[in-house]
Write a structure and sequence with these properties.
By secondary structure, the chain is an all-alpha fold. It is built from 8 helices and no strands.
């Protein structure tokens, strides 16, 4: 049985209301829903029941989840490449930092250079890349999850820089330390414990 114009418009409006950002995916979903419903129409179930069942079959967790999975599949190679680069940077930074600390303890030349390079690589390259990766995961969640990532990264970088300034006997150590501690205590921790609370009662 063929769908009426009103029924096709209802399907299109439903998909449009879900806010999908990929036009081709929206068209494919509409076509799929129309085909499935047409094949079952007239078999005792109402149009609304058939639409609900078809949506559940194609996207049990909603069309937004279907779009997120589609985007992941389209960008999986790039995502994997970025993750490899991120962890490689983290490894290089950690090894260089460890070598710098070891050289410092053994009074070997080049200790300060290795320590600074390793520390800054880990703090200013790996940490932001890791935060971006976490932010992409949290972007489909509540604003508290996103703010937690942003404020946590900011507090970590500022506090880490204050430690480096202290070791290098540079000015501004106390200001950086106070700023980092303030952002961590007043900005990050409330969102951290709030999200923990929400998960505990979910």
């Amino acid at each position: 049985m063929k769908l009426t114009v009103e029924q096709e418009e209802k399907i299109s409006q439903y998909v449009f209301d879900q806010g999908l950002k990929i036009p081709s995916l929206s068209d494919d979903v509409i076509d799929h829903l129309c085909c499935v419903i047409e094949s079952e129409l007239g078999k005792e179930k109402s149009f609304d029941e058939l639409l609900s069942n078809a949506i559940t079959d194609i996207a049990p967790n909603g069309l937004a989840d279907l779009e997120n999975k589609t985007i992941f599949l389209l960008n999986s190679k790039r995502i994997l490449l970025m993750k490899k680069f991120m962890y490689l940077i983290g490894f290089i930074g950690s090894v260089t930092l460890t070598a710098g600390i070891t050289f410092k303890l053994l009074s070997y030349p080049g200790a300060n250079v290795l320590f600074i390079i390793g520390f800054l690589t880990f703090l200013l390259v790996f940490m932001p890349l890791y935060a971006i990766d976490r932010y992409k995961v949290a972007i489909s969640k509540t604003i508290s999850e996103r703010l937690k990532v942003i404020l946590g990264l900011t507090a970590a970088i500022i506090t880490g820089l204050s430690g480096l300034f202290k070791l290098m006997h540079l000015q501004g150590t106390q200001i950086l330390l106070l700023a980092g501690a303030f952002i961590f205590a007043v900005g990050y921790l409330p969102f951290f414990f709030f999200t923990m609370y929400k998960k505990s009662i979910a």
